[in-house]
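Hey,

The postdoc asked me to send both predictions to you directly instead of through the lab channel. I've kept everything plain text so nothing gets mangled by the mail client. Protein one:
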Amino acid sequence: MADDAFTEHRPLLFTIAYEMLGSAADAEDVLQESYLRWSAVDPGTVEHPRAYLVRVVTRQALNHLRTVKARREDYVGPWLPEPIRTTSDVNDDAILAESVSMAMMLVLETLNPTERAVFVLHDVFGYTHGEIAASVGKTEVTVRQIAHRARKHVHARRRRFEPDSDATRAIVQRFLLAATTGEIQALMDLLAPDVVEISDGGGKASAARRPITGREDVARFTLGVARTTITATTRVEHATYNGMPAALCHTDGELDWLLAFEIHDGRITGLYAMRNPDKLHRARTVRPLDRGENQPWKP
């Protein structure tokens, strides 16, 4: 019975943990810790298992987030959320798709742990301030203030977002063709004037040590990367990551990099290049996500 309940709600629990932590590995650790706590409880005493599990995962993720914050301060080069391969149905939920996008996840990184937990639970998953209060150890009034502050912060920094679609994938195809054929003008025509490219090598793979901004600089950087990494044995695979169109570059059978595309109004506004082998190692796993339907938080 306990296993069945946890398995049933696992996609929702993983989604909450991932959005709070930005790491699939850390989210899995939180789920494991939460499962151990859940298995020690008599399910017959829990009126709403999903609400109970959400509360447990929230508390565990919040504790975990406070520890990983310090670890990320020592990260070599730009840090990107661990990319997750998402299923097509994620794009049917606009709020969910945007909430796991690379741009939004980076904005969430600028919140403190409590702000992030409150924003994710309230604005993404629809829980009330009162329901959230017990999980974050604050009063309802304080949670309401935190939610207002976090929402204002996020909305001031959020980028325009369009989920993966046939139209966005066509733009990715044109981008890859221009990159491999060295057509810089064709590349620039696909990029927004304020496009930003962020590369994450984690100090373990070659990557730009700072974000690259502007159409011309991004185009030239892209061509440079293409010349040095794309060979006769390179295979490119198209997929959806974090609700965004993405290209996976395999060299000699190994996943060498993953490039996720942020596209709006027919132009590429953001490029997120993952080269950290630790994160790429886990990127092959498909992650079912779920926003669920809100329930009371009764234990």
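Protein two:
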Amino acid sequence: MTDRRSTCALLGATLLLAACGPSADRTAATDRPAPADQAAPASAPAADTGLAAYVGKYPFDKVDGVAWTDHPAVKAGLAATVTDAKIRQTIAAAGATAAPIELYQGKVMSWACEAHNCGPHQWAVLIDPASGATDACYHDEDVDAGRSHWFLAGGTEEWRDGNCQLGQDEG
């Protein structure tokens, strides 16, 4: 009886070890998508830009000694997205009239305008805080009173109805 128990235990241990090793039969099981709550991480996780720390502050306020317009993620996002150098320079310039930075549709958004000319000349910058993907809106009433020029992450440009006032001031 003892030999039979030893043989069963040895056989059981062998089967367990075999189940832990690679097997062609188990490959199909690993090809199935993970359950939603256990989804595999992206191959290259996006680094946090740190821009969420600016929410509630003005673009001229400094976080860790850096103003919004001087932040590397803002500079890089504008350089990659806004193809018009004059518009990019206007958006990036410090000293414009501005609203507090806010979170809008999951993106950190800064809105600013030309002093004493806010309605006709304004812009907004929206940056994904995780990836740095940047969208920018530029409204110049002298160019088109009813529409704004949008520069979108990925290189797309389009004209949209309205100005660049989004978020809390949006009706």
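Summary for protein two, as requested: Residues 1-46 have pLDDT under 50 and may be disordered.

Thanks,
C.
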